[in-house]
Amino acid sequence: MKSATGLTGSGSRDWVVQRISAVVLAVYSLVMLGWFLTHQPTFELWQGFMLSLPMRLFTLLMILALVGHAWVGMWTVLTDYVKSNGLRFVLQSAMILAVLVYLFWGVMIFF
Ligand code: HEM
């Protein structure tokens, strides 16, 4: 029987995606927190920071990590807890649609 898999077609690759993406999300959150703790935010300062090349690249990486993280994480939870095939299909489709919308939305805002 073909095994039911999440994002990458392999459970162990999904596991790696879940952990690496969690690290990227955690580091991004710490960078944000650090910036707010060390600056008096004005619109110009914030805009300059977020539109700098390193932050654009880091934000793109964070959005990709978020997509992978939410996809694998929610796929795992729904597969474990929603026993009805039809309902799980609907919820997983909604989840995939939501993360793809966030991906395109995020890319449109920043690039
Ligand atoms: C700052 C942002 C985030 C960080 C640092 C983070 C970190 C983590 C970590 C460390 C785990 C545990 C991995 C494990 O041991 O299996 C985890 C699991 C999970 N995360 Fe996140 N996460 C973040 C955002 C999100 C978001 C936005 C979602 C949206 C759906 C999400 C959904 C999940 C789910 C569903 C799991 C459980 C997966 C499982 O039980 O196998 N996370 N996250």
Automatic annotation (TrEMBL):
Pathway where this protein functions: Carbohydrate metabolism; tricarboxylic acid cycle
Keyword list (alphabetical) reads: Cell inner membrane, Cell membrane, Electron transport, Heme, Iron, Membrane, Metal-binding, Transmembrane, Transmembrane helix, Transport, Tricarboxylic acid cycle
Q: Which GO terms describe its molecular function?
A: electron transfer activity; heme binding; metal ion binding
* Annotated TM spans: 20-37, 57-77, 89-110
Give the co-factor note: The heme is bound between the two transmembrane subunits.
Residues binding heme, per UniProt:
69
User: Per the record, GO CC terms?
Assistant: plasma membrane
Its required cofactor(s), as named, are: heme
A GO BP term, please? cytochrome complex assembly
- Annotated positions binding a ubiquinone: 81
- InterPro entries found in the cross-reference section: SQR/QFR_C/D (IPR034804), Succ_DH_anchor (IPR014312), SuccDH_FuR_B_TM-su (IPR000701)
Q: How does it sit in the membrane?
A: Multi-pass membrane protein
Per UniProt, subcellular location reads as: Cell inner membrane
Record PANTHER family: SUCCINATE DEHYDROGENASE HYDROPHOBIC MEMBRANE ANCHOR SUBUNIT (PTHR38689)
Function as written in the Swiss-Prot or TrEMBL entry: Membrane-anchoring subunit of succinate dehydrogenase (SDH).
What name has this protein been given in UniProt? Succinate dehydrogenase hydrophobic membrane anchor subunit
